[in-house]
Amino acid sequence: MNWNALLPEIVLSFGILLLFFLDLVLEKKHFKFLSLLGSLTALTAFFSIFFVEYPAYTFFDTFYVSQLELFGKGILYILSGLSILALYDYLLKKDSVYGEMPYLVLISTLGLSFFLSSNSLITLFVSLELSSITIYILSAMLRKDYSSKEGAFKYLLMGSVGTALFGMGSSFYYGATGTFFLTPYADSNTVFSLFILFFLSALALKVSAVPFHFWTPDAYEGAPTPVVGYLATAPKLAIYFLLVKLSMLFSHLRLWLILIGVLALLSMFYANLTAYAQRSVKRLLAYSSIAHAGYFLLGISTSDNLLQSGLIFYVVVYTFATLGSFVVLSSIEKSQGFTHHILDYRGLGKENLLLGTSFSLFLLAFIGIPPMALFVGKLNLFLGLVHANLSLLAFAFVIASIISAGYYLKVVSYMFLEEGERKYENVSVSAGESLVILVCSILVVLFGLFPHLLLNFIKL
Question: H/E element holding 41?
């Protein structure tokens, strides 16, 4: 057994056990301490990555570590640590203090960490379910809040469908190849085609691609807002890393390109057009997430290094912009009687310049306005599609991105050009929330000005 390859997972496991024990013996007033310890655990796991020797196999070759997997884990641990920091004050203000919260986030992170390194469909299944089940629980953590329970229940039902699709796809893969290990396969037979159909459907559900997106708006609207920041970033990051690996193995099959193209086009155009009808900003961001699922799926249309490195860069910077935007929303939501109706955002930029400016920065980043890092991500993805001779998909990507600009700018205009009845000068922003917003803002701009700082670590 190569224990060195499992070093980050071991660190996370010990941190989870320690938090579990402390939660049993400490009172609720120590919730902030447990949250800080949970964030420190994620940070320790991040630093442990630098002591892992790669490439390496372990667990009977079902667990594989290379530079790409370690890069993905590093981003995952940063997102997890920041998410925990953003959660504690929100749950205190909402009278929903649960000592389980820090280690539930870390359990989900542990599952996704194994998922990133899984080299077998069996370990992929187990690790994904470990993460998914804890996210269902996190989504329902608002005490006495019906919409939180409803959103979590819908997420659970749709997630169960995804689990069934994943299991069915895995059985067809075994029937076609005689193994659960992910290996190249050239024969385009019916059984393997069924694997592609079922497996891509399962992953499309997890990343909120149309037509498997129905759970997303309700789950985003009902779940605790900082939890939404986590579930909209960490699981999707891990799944897109897996999709990049799968595209290297199976994108030569015609069915792969057809399914990916259909899912991407439906997601981009349906979500961007539907977003205009939303009056809730949280639901608007949910449809933005669905649209971005379409953008990202374009990056796995075919196996092309330029295209896939552009996709990974885009996904990483998107996660920081998304986490930052939901933390801004959670900070404002703590105000008495605040809803996420778009009219409640009128005058936010004038009344609270820092929060209004931060949220505007993230919204403009989603559009792809330079010097935000998402502009570089969109540009790299467009150039990758052209390089891979997928010019029609590249053109559709540009059109969908232009369509999306309107609903982001609508929110910005409400914040800075409209007069609101609410007063936002005294919005309570905790130290943890401030740090998360600051880090995400800096990274979104920094990687836009100096993209090579991130691109140098993306080795396919």
Answer: helix 31-48
Where is 63: in which H helix or E strand?
Answer: strand 63-65
CA pair distance 324, 166, nearest whole angstrom: 31
DSSP 343: G
Structure tokens at 271: 């979500």
For residue 298, which of 252, 261, 266 has the smallest C-alpha distance?
261
Would you list the domain boundaries of the chain?
A: 1-236, 251-460
Report if pTM > 0.90.
Answer: yes
Beta-bridge partners for 57? 64
What's the half-sphere exposure (Cβ side, CA atoms, 13 Å) at 180?
A: 17
Q: Which contiguous run of DSSP H or E holds residue 57?
A: strand 56-58
Amino acid identity at 344: D
| Gap between the Cα atoms of 113 and 106, Å rounded | 10
- Our CA angle for 25, 26, 31, nearest 5°, is 140
pLDDT band at 337; cut points 50, 70, 90: low
pLDDT in tens, 374-398: 999 999 999 999 999 999 999 999 9
Assess whether pLDDT exceeds 70 at residue 336. Answer: no
